[in-house]
Structure formats: C-alpha cells, structure tokens
C-alpha cells in the first residue's frame, strides 16, 4: 500500500532522515518507534506533504506522493492525527468532525460515518455541542482521531496519540486503534509508549537518528534485547 524508498529529508542543513526505506502493507498496523529527534514525526509529515523531501520516493498504491499538494494526498485516502491533537478549540465537537469531511460531498454517507465515529467514541456524541477547547485531554485526542476518520481514510497516520494522557485513557486509545484497524483501515503509528505500540503492531521499525536501525514483527521487537534496553525500560 505505502512504500518509502531511500528517503532523505533535511531541515536547514540538518539531516532529519538519512535514506530510510519501509513499507506499510494494506490492512496492517505498522509502528515506528524511536527516541525524540529520531525523525519519526518528520516521516509522517513528509508522507502527508507538510515537509518536502530532498530525494527518494514515497508511493501509495503505486502512485508517487512526493510533490503532490496536501489535498491530493488527502483525496487518495491518507489522513493524519497530528501530535498535540490540534483540535479547533472554538468550534464544537460536531463542527470539528464536519471539518474532517470537508473534501467529501457524499452527504448521506457522511451522516453514516458520523454515526460510526459516535459509536466508536460515545463521549463525543454526549459532548457534540461543546467547544473542542473545553474537552479533557483524552477527549480531545478522541476528537482528533474521529476527525481524521471523517475523511474516510484507507490509511490513518497517528503521531503520539497517547502523549500526556492518563494510563486508563491510553488503554482506551489503543483499543480504539485496534477497532479502527479491524474495520479495514490501515494504521501507521508513531508512539513513545513502545511497549503498547509493539503489542498491537503487525510490523515495526526502530528509527535511530534518521536511519532505520531494526525492523521486524511487533512480537519480535518486544523480545529483542536491544529494544528492551533502549525503549522498554528493561
């Protein structure tokens, strides 16, 4: 589905990505773990068109994404849940969700998808009239995920969805990621909670200062001694 080959990205002379190559197969959960500054967010931002690459290739269903405008990438079915949630604080929950569907014109299906995200996130339905800025951190994260789902994505990319959330809320977020994937949405996940991420991932990559250091199934990396020492606190 998504294939990255020899991707190089620089910020003002600093090399953020140094020729990374990776794949995200259709219908799977793939996670990218690594320390702060390793290049994880840069990878997602380059895929989504927010950052320009120096060289390399990113193809989605065989079509090159590099150089495409952001709206074209969205139209292909790629949505992102940004780090820090980035909800529209002055708009209601419902208005935030409708913004997620702004490229769509299938009104009847939009209403069905609204019902679907309310099933996934009952608290959002209860608070549909509230301003996004009045929600708790966990509720704002749910809103950010739900807003991305309103794009009707085939691939959803999530940047640190558990950041700053209480352990019980983190557990809920990861269960929702499983549910989203079970309904046919491919997931590319960046997550500092490496233990939780590897437990749900079909495949995983370890990013170290802009390069892929290790790769394997989630289960393989969970028991890898180097990964344990560096990322799992054991």
In CATH, the topology of the largest domain is named Rossmann fold
Largest sheet: 6 strands, mixed
Task: Note the gap between the termini.
Answer: 34 Å
Report the mean per-residue pLDDT as an integer.
91
Tell me the overall shape.
Answer: globular
Order of helices and strands: EEEHEEHEHHHHEHEHEEHH
Number of strands: 10
Estimate the helix proportion, in percent.
25-40%
Put simply, the count of helices is 10
Total tally of structural domains: 2
CATH architecture of the largest domain: 3-Layer(aba) Sandwich
Strand order of the largest sheet: 6-7-8-3-9-10
CATH top level assignment of the largest domain: Alpha Beta
Secondary structure category: alpha/beta
Low-confidence regions: none
Taking all Cα atoms into account, the compactness measure Rg is: 17 Å
The H-level CATH homologous superfamily of the largest domain, spelled out, is P-loop containing nucleotide triphosphate hydrolases
Strand content: 25-35%
Write the topology of this structure.
Elements: E1 2-11, E2 14-24, E3 29-33, H1 40-47, E4 55-60, E5 63-64, H2 70-75, E6 78-81, H3 93-100, H4 107-120, H5 122-126, H6 137-149, E7 155-159, H7 167-182, E8 186-190, H8 194-200, E9 203-208, E10 211-217, H9 218-222, H10 225-231
């Amino acid at each position: 589905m998504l294939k990255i080959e020899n991707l190089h990205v620089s910020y003002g002379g600093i090399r953020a990505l140094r020729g990374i190559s990776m794949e995200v197969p259709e219908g799977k959960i793939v996670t990218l773990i690594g320390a702060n500054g390793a290049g994880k967010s840069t990878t997602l931002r380059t895929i989504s068109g927010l950052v320009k690459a120096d060289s390399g290739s990113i193809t989605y269903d065989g079509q090159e994404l590099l150089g495409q405008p952001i709206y074209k990438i969205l139209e292909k079915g790629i949505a992102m849940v940004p780090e820090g949630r980035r909800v529209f604080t002055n708009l209601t929950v419902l208005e935030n969700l409708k913004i997620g569907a702004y490229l769509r014109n299938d009104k009847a299906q939009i209403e069905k998808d609204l019902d679907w995200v309310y099933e996934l996130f009952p608290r959002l339905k209860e608070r549909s009239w509230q301003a996004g800025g009045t929600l708790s951190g966990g509720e704002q994260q749910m809103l950010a995920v739900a807003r991305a789902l309103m794009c009707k994505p085939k691939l959803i990319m999530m940047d640190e969805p558990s950041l700053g959330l209480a352990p019980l809320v983190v557990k809920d977020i990861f269960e929702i990621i499983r549910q989203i994937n079970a309904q046919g949405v491919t997931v590319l996940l960046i997550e500092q909670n490496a233990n939780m991420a590897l437990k749900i991932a079909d495949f995983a990559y370890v990013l170290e200062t802009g390069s892929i250091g290790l790769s394997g199934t989630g289960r393989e990396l969970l028991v890898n001694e180097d990964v344990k020492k560096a990322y799992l606190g054991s």
